[in-house]
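Narrative progress, year one. The postdoctoral researcher (J.K.) led the effort to move from monomer predictions toward full complexes, under supervision of the PI. The following entry was the first complex the group processed end to end, covering 972 residues in total.
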Amino acid sequence: MSKNIFFEKSKPILLSEVFTESQFNKDLKIHDIKTLKQATNLDITFFESIAYKDSAKTTKASCCITTEKLKKYLPENCMPILVKSVLFDLAKITKRFYPDADLDYPDITLSKPDKSKYSSVKFGNNVLIGKNCQIGESTIIGNNTIIEHNVSIGNNCVIGSQIVIRNSLIGNEVVIQDGCKIGLKGFGFIPNKNKNIRMPHIGKVILKDNVELGSNCTIDRGSIDDTIIGKNTFLDNQVHMAHNVKIGDNCMIAGQVGFAGSTTIGNNVSIGGQAGISGHLNIGNNVKIGGGSGVVKNIENGSVVMGYPAVPLKKFIKDSKKDE
Amino acid sequence: MSKNIFFEKSKPILLSEVFTESQFNKDLKIHDIKTLKQATNLDITFFESIAYKDSAKTTKASCCITTEKLKKYLPENCMPILVKSVLFDLAKITKRFYPDADLDYPDITLSKPDKSKYSSVKFGNNVLIGKNCQIGESTIIGNNTIIEHNVSIGNNCVIGSQIVIRNSLIGNEVVIQDGCKIGLKGFGFIPNKNKNIRMPHIGKVILKDNVELGSNCTIDRGSIDDTIIGKNTFLDNQVHMAHNVKIGDNCMIAGQVGFAGSTTIGNNVSIGGQAGISGHLNIGNNVKIGGGSGVVKNIENGSVVMGYPAVPLKKFIKDSKKDE
Amino acid sequence: MSKNIFFEKSKPILLSEVFTESQFNKDLKIHDIKTLKQATNLDITFFESIAYKDSAKTTKASCCITTEKLKKYLPENCMPILVKSVLFDLAKITKRFYPDADLDYPDITLSKPDKSKYSSVKFGNNVLIGKNCQIGESTIIGNNTIIEHNVSIGNNCVIGSQIVIRNSLIGNEVVIQDGCKIGLKGFGFIPNKNKNIRMPHIGKVILKDNVELGSNCTIDRGSIDDTIIGKNTFLDNQVHMAHNVKIGDNCMIAGQVGFAGSTTIGNNVSIGGQAGISGHLNIGNNVKIGGGSGVVKNIENGSVVMGYPAVPLKKFIKDSKKDE
């Protein structure tokens, strides 16, 4: 995953080019922008919330956009670049590396599939495929579906009709039902009067083997990180997954559930219809979340919760009865 | 409705072929899998929940997949086949009869409409029609819309653009707005580590006369039974109807409402925006359900409810004030 | 905005032609149906709820469909036409003026874009454009997208794929992500056994400069009035906006939010995911509405609310704790 196959990246840049006001090693060259976890000593990273302090402590990045308050968590090898708004400066440097990732320009390299290249793939009518896609054996792609450049799809997948897939890596035996929009940029921007500043989205969507998505789901790609759905996890219709959300293996997500950005869901989690999960949360393994719940806190392994805000199921039932 | 026009069925099979471990009439031949209500003495049926005991008592099926606990409700003519998981064995035998109904393979018999066959139908651009469809007089089909094989659509319908319709029977004067996905398989499977077991969906969607669907709705077809919307019932945008849901006549369903599987809604029911209705419920006639409600119990005729969980409206208002 | 560019209007009509049972100036000729605010002395208007009494007092319409109870608010120059159901008679006269606006017949004037007319526009594959559209410089239109007749789109817009836009005026630098359906008729009808009476929708959707819509949003056009999104307001995925909703400038609307009809939202408002806003409300400026909230009352400038029903955030937190 070291190279970004979906977005063109500029050459390495001198840090001093971008952060002109800071005083630090003027000659430091940075090669890419990555998360705290993924960065190497060639990269710059960012650290905007105490929630990520564990990742900060072990980052290998050579420098990190952060705040006065958070800098103490960074290791010695990582030079802090102190700013007022981490997200603002993150947007600025990401845009500098990836000038085309802040908007989803439709792929104009699309064309009808080259049957000689995809000889074992079954295509419906009017399918459009971008450059450098990979589609595995015995996969079926439905009518009017659009697969943008560099997307890879595994073997034995059933991709429905009227779907858009971009910036995504899709495993084997994945099922995607009609109307899904996968890999679009997320809802990330810095509010600014008259003209918001968009956060470039250089991440991907990764759907692991045996994933199923119901119809009209929207799965946004990650901003710097990726959006991931684990093996054998099934989503029902009209589910919305924001950027950077990670869902584990063997989960069941019912219709119209919404996930706000950067939340992580464990394995074997089941979520009832129309539940909403706030952003930047950790939901453990083997958790059950009742339909219609609004989850606003982390949830421990094995918990069963329901309600708005979500509470342990027993309490929800007791409270509902108390009102009677 | 005795023949399934959407899915190819295998020849009749010996019961002993499928249920090798059970002891019973080895020579019993079964012709199809049907619901308790629809089965004839040529069919096998299934009975998995006490909620269906009334239908069980009068079933005409020759045999029934059920449990030790439930078998006492079956009539004498119906031989119980006792299993641990009714749904598991139901999936197995349904897949045996209908090998292609567990996944929605895109219809590759689609082609441009034959103008001589559909001489009184108005088609937009790029419409795709499958084999053996029927489309009534003066019906209009919008741009980029896909009508898969064997679908029938009545007279004077207005079908919008970028729609997919499969496995559906649609009445007269039905209006379907852009982006709806109708007749896809539902969210039915038996969770199984690493590879869930999909329930074949051999049911249909039936939209009766004068139904209207707003844009981007998703209406899943039935699993063994059908999904039905009654006459003159209107749905707003982004409504999600799971498999086997039945809505009566003259209902009004506002935007983003979600119905979990196998729930039945009476006539003259109105449901406010974003309400969610749990699965396997009975909602009576003339019921009003407030916006945002979460309905988790059966509701009697004429009730007015609101809240999460939904309670009588008066109580909801009193409780809201009490908190003030 | 005096002429309706999207719907063909009949010639002026004698009032007595439509309201045969009323007694009034038999020779009064009316030229159009408009809202209380927009009507001139050539137009008829309507006044169905006390909520609009301020607009009623200053209307310039020559006559107004209303009720015995409300007529006292109308100025002298405006003749009241007293009816039992304002909406029923509104539907009747609107249909008389605009016979084709009660159903969304797909545009059959669509064709591939004329490259000589749109020389500075970049088009994806299979784009369909109706008659008399205007598309600004350097705008990009994605694949399989449909722009119906008379729609105008400004400069530097990025319109994604598999979108439908009709009856809409779109500003500069607007971003619309894949799968949105914009400008369709709303969920407006008079319930009537066996055959509801549809309210014609002669309004538009207006998206001002720098608006962004996430994927699979549905933005219905206005009925008599317009649906409007102000400058620099961003919507996330799967948002549903009903007819006549007006959102101000610089707002942030998260995923799966739903707006019922005719509600007005101020400037600088942020709304969390899955919140629902009831119809005919006024939400002030600088309001924050928490995720999952159900807003059923007007909200004053600067308020922060959460809950179902929504209450001030402090109270929501206190109540949630009290239950613990």
